[in-house]
Amino acid sequence: MRLGLILTTSFLLMAGVVALVGYLFKGTSDAVQAEVEAVRQNSIAAFMGAAEMAVALQQSQLAAQQIIAARLQGLVEPTHDTGPLPGLEDSIERAEDSLTQFESWVTETRQSVAIAASSSSGASEQAQEDDFPAAVAESLIEIEKQFAVYKTLMDRFTHLAEWHPTEQLSEFFVDQLQPAFEDELAPGLRLFEENSRQVLTAELDRMESAHRRANRRNGIVAVASFMGALILGLVIARSISKPLGALQEGVSRVAKGELATRVEVKTDNEIGVLADAFNKMVTQLEASTVSRTYLDSIIQSVNEMLFVTDADGRIRTVNRAVHEGLGYDLGELIGKPLDDDLIKGSLAGLEVGENEFRDHDGETIPVYCSRSELRSETGEFAGMVLVALDLRRRKETEARLRASIAEKDVLLREIHHRVKNNLQIVSSLLSLQDSSDNQTGETERVLRDSRNRVRSMALIHEQLYKSEDLARIDFRAYVEELVVYLTRSFDLSRRRIEVLRDVDALPLSVDLAIPCGMIINELVANGVEHAYPEGDGVIRVAFHLREGRYSLTVADDGVGVPAEIDPSTAPTLGLRLIWALGKQLGAEVRFDRGQGTVVSVGFAQSHSVPSEVPA
Question: pTM for this structure?
Answer without folding.
Answer: 0.40
